[in-house]
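call fold(seq) -> tokens
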Amino acid sequence: MSERRPGFIVTFIMRAVIGMAIIFFVNQFLETKGIDVRVGMNGISLVTSGILGLPGVALLYGIVVYRIL
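ret:
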């Protein structure tokens, strides 16, 4: 069990960093196109992207778009 823990932590950190980078760049891209959809870069976004990865980032954008409708 202790052998699995470091792998999970490293995977979580990699997903979180990549997810936050994707959120940053997508927010910048949408801003240049004049689309008012922004996902905040905060702890909730960090944990969501760290646990779920790319589908978590898509989920965050889906929630923001749903709130606009």
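The CA atoms of residues 19 and 54 lie 6 Å apart.
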